[in-house]
Design goal:
The chain has 8 helices and 4 strands. It is α+β, with helices and mostly antiparallel strands and 227 residues long. The protein has one domain (13-219). It has a 4-stranded antiparallel β-sheet with strand order 1-2-3-4, with helices on one face. Strand 3 and strand 4 form a beta hairpin.
Length: 227
């Protein structure tokens, strides 16, 4: 009787290395795609938050004869720079509530002020920016581990609206071009240099959109009570 011998042949070292190399190559190609898709989803959630905040602002306007919240952003809590631009308003700043606190009765949620991409920042994070880059949108010097955790909000109010006591009908530009609030840092949806920074922005007509950091200041309303 003839015996049949079974021989199990495993992978050789060369074959295993080839398989590992192929897997590594696929990972290198796909991970950036997944990363971009994840960030797009976060940005969409961020814009959705801003839209909800915009609805809250609209309800506030209805209750206060069309006037924007007489409130401040975390920037003014950290540093009252208004003495240089508007001394009369600067004297009121220490007694004014923050924007996200004023809107709480309308949003019914604190989480709506938390941008999913909020990774915080420090005073050195945008040190490569020059003043002409418009990388900064009047923010405190640092926020760790996130702006939401440290300051209670990822979105910063354009306090010029309070300083000028603006109403929806007295804006110095069309509501579609008047910035109301934006991300605390453009690097959350972009990267250095400044031309690759993007702010998610809320406008007075309640539309939201990403705006490049080099253009975002063009949407700010003017100071009124200048010295």
């Amino acid at each position: 009787m003839r015996r049949c011998e079974r021989t199990d042949r495993g992978f050789t070292l060369i074959e295993l290395l080839v398989v590992i190399a192929i897997i590594a190559l696929l990972a290198a190609l796909l991970f950036p795609v997944f990363s971009r898709a994840r960030e797009k989803a976060r940005q969409s959630a961020c814009l959705s938050n801003l839209h909800q905040i915009g609805l809250a602002v609209s309800m506030y306007l209805q209750d206060y004869d069309g006037y924007f919240p007489y409130a401040i952003s975390p920037m003014e809590v950290y540093h009252n720079f208004w003495a240089e631009f508007s001394p009369s308003f600067a004297a009121q700043v220490p007694y004014l509530p923050q924007f996200h606190v004023v809107l709480q009765p309308y949003t019914k949620s604190h989480q709506v002020f938390d941008c999913p991409s909020d990774a915080g920042y420090d005073k050195y994070s945008l040190s490569a920016c020059s003043p002409s880059d418009y990388c900064l949108l009047d923010r405190p010097a640092e926020a760790h581990p996130s702006s939401f955790i440290q300051w209670g909000t990822s979105y910063y109010y354009q306090t010029q609206l309070a300083e000028g006591n603006y109403s929806i009908n007295s804006l110095d530009r069309s509501p579609a071009e008047a910035l109301v609030a934006a991300d605390g840092a453009g690097i959350w949806h972009g990267q250095m240099p400044a031309k690759d920074n993007w702010y998610d922005c809320l406008f007075a007509d309640n539309h939201v959109k990403p705006v490049n950091a080099t253009k975002v200041r063009a949407y700010q309303v003017s100071y009124i009570h200048k010295p």
